[in-house]
Amino acid sequence: MSYKITVGPKTNAPSFDWVLTDVFECLQKTTDYSISYFENEEDIDESCHIAIFSKCLPKNSTFRRLKATKLIFVPIDYYYSTFQIWSDKTVLTLFDAIFIHNSNINTYLPVSVSKYAIDHYQKFDIKRNRTVQDFILWLGVSEYVPQTIRFLIDQKIHPDTIVLLSDTQNIIKDLNSITLQLDRLGLRSPIIGDDSNIDIQGYVIQKWSAEKQNVYLASCISCIDYKTREFRHLTKPPTKCQIHASSAVPQFVNEDHPAVELLQKDGIYLKNIEDMQRMEKTDIIEYGQTLKFQCDKRYHLSNVVKVYEDNITQIITTPIKSRRFIFITLLSRTIRAFLFRQLSSGSKLRELIRRITGR
């Protein structure tokens, strides 16, 4: 029997191809699954056996219409806060499964829904130079810049020893917010250069490009990353650390970085930045090779595809989730979503919601 699987909503975002399209194109070749993609959920054929939703929750009408279809949710980095999950918690119980890239999010998801672990595959092949230079590299999105700069200063990592790449256009776009965050951390306002580079406390953040990233990853002595235990950092997929480690890029992190525990479960042992500061250059290079050996082929496309296939096979063989009380569940969703919007906008209901949710 050929199982019909549809995936979406299809977007032009690079993450959609990375997490879904590339994988399901391989599944199309190696299995008898009939794979399709949807842009609008109204176009999903009710005869589909499985519908997979990425970074988007179906409408109430879709849940009611697709009663005979197994539904899978792939949040990736969809959630920004525990309140956001709280607002969706009842509707999440209507899914047959959730595919997760970070097991830390399990704590916040409904117990009644089956969770399956998946990884990003190694989409970008990092070719390391035979001879590396004596600079450290940091790659990250604009939301992490203020805390990272504070950390670099506290660790006494000199601006001349590190290259920083980020989406500087978004720092400029959200300048007031970034400036406020910097001020709270005791840092000066950013200085914007003519070349879209941004100076914060002497640390120059260059505008990210794929070309720059490839050049710097090939020649840097090591990469560093800083994350806290706050929800957004704790639950974000540890993709950067995984990809760097599997490419022999020496990846160092702060001691309580969430990726330390996550990768350790897979037999991959990240060292912290204090270790880096004590190590000789040859030891750092050797550490990168050790990481690659520990990763083995875990993040190769064929391995990741096999995990997807095993997960889908298991979901196919389990009974479809009962949506017997769907009306009550969807009504609860509507109420929670309303309360969440009010909370997010600073409504007078804030205190009431805190009492209800205990947060």
Your description of this structure?
The chain is globular. The protein is of the alpha/beta class and 359 residues long. α2 (60-65) links the parallel β3 and β4 (70-74). The protein starts with a strand and ends with a helix. It has an 8-stranded mixed sheet, with helices on both faces. It has a 6-stranded parallel sheet with strand order 2-1-3-4-5-6, covered by helices on one side. It contains 15 helices and 14 strands. It has helices at 14-30, 60-65, 82-92, 145-154, 168-173, 175-184, 210-219, 231-235, 239-246, 258-264, 273-278, 281-295, 301-317, 326-344, 350-357, and strands spanning 4-8, 34-37, 50-54, 70-74, 97-100, 114-117, 136-139, 162-166, 191-192, 198-200, 203-207, 222-225, 251-253, 271-272.
Offer a few descriptive terms.
alpha/beta, 15 helices, globular, 8-stranded mixed beta sheet, 6-stranded parallel beta sheet, 359 residues, single chain, 14 strands
Q: Tell me, what's the shape? A: globular
Question: What is the tally of helical segments?
Answer: 15
Number of strands: 14
Radius of gyration: 22 Å
Residues in helix, %: 40-55%
Strand order in space, largest sheet: 9-10-11-8-7-12-13-14
Largest sheet: 8 strands, mixed
Low-confidence stretches: none
Fraction of residues in β-strands? 15-25%
Order of helices and strands: EHEEHEHEEEHEHHEEEHEHHEHEHHHHH
Distance between the termini: 48 Å
Q: Given the helix and strand composition, which structural class is it?
A: alpha/beta
Mean pLDDT: 91
